[in-house]
Amino acid sequence: MKKLLTFIIILVLLALVVFLGFKLLDKDENNENEIIDNTVNEEQNNTSNNKSDSNTTSQSEENQEYNTTIYIGTEDNFEEFTVNIDKSGSATYQASQILEAIGDILGYRLIANDITDGKGGMTIDFNSNSAPFNTNDSYIGNEQYTTNDDLAFAIFDSIEKTLQEYFGQNLDVWFSLDSGSITINDVTIPITEPYQGSNYYLK
């Protein structure tokens, strides 16, 4: 009888050990799955945050790269406009975009034979078909700014002011017409000196 009782107790203990072992294994597996799930979720969140940060940075860089202020008017009064300028090209390419933007705002096509950039500053050599020399053929309309000042000097002052704000205040800007001096409205802008501003020529 004692042997039978002992055998039953041993069986009960073995069953208890097996049961507790399964419980421990199941608990460890659940914990492991939970850790894996948490790790995956964390990686997904980090990826999502990185994409969001990347998009924000990209948009911020794009805004900084392409938003440029254009100054329209004459020496005593400029109005500011914001346009998109592609800064990935050369200085002369960027200047040509600025020239085009100023023309669009004023409602006239500004045509340059050549734009040169060097130690002496930047030179804009106008074509005779460009405003302000040929206002009939160069008129494109839809002007965003109507100047009460002399159109020619509004163009020259706007170009000089914008280029200096864009490239640096110390930039000398030279103007010429078909590689020669400019004479317009009985006023001469010589090719031998940088542009001095409308107040200097109209005094």
Walk me through what this model shows.
The chain has 203 residues and is an alpha+beta fold. It is built from 4 helices and 7 strands, in the order H-E-E-H-E-E-H-E-E-E-H. It is 50% helix and 20% strand. The chain starts with a helix and ends with a helix. The longest helix is centred in the N-terminal third of the chain and has 65 residues, at 2-66. It has a 3-stranded mixed beta sheet, covered by helices on one side. It has a two-stranded antiparallel sheet with strand order 1-2.
Brief summary:
This protein has about 200 residues and is of the alpha+beta class.
Query: Mind summarizing the main beta sheet?
Result: 3 strands, mixed
Q: Which spans of ≥5 residues are poorly predicted at pLDDT below 50?
A: none
Q: Structural class from helices and strands? A: alpha+beta
Question: What's the order of the H and E elements?
Answer: HEEHEEHEEEH
The percent range for helix content is 40-55%
Instruction: Tell me the overall shape.
Output: rod-shaped
Overall pLDDT, averaged?
Answer: 82
- Taking all Cα atoms into account, the compactness measure Rg is 38 Å
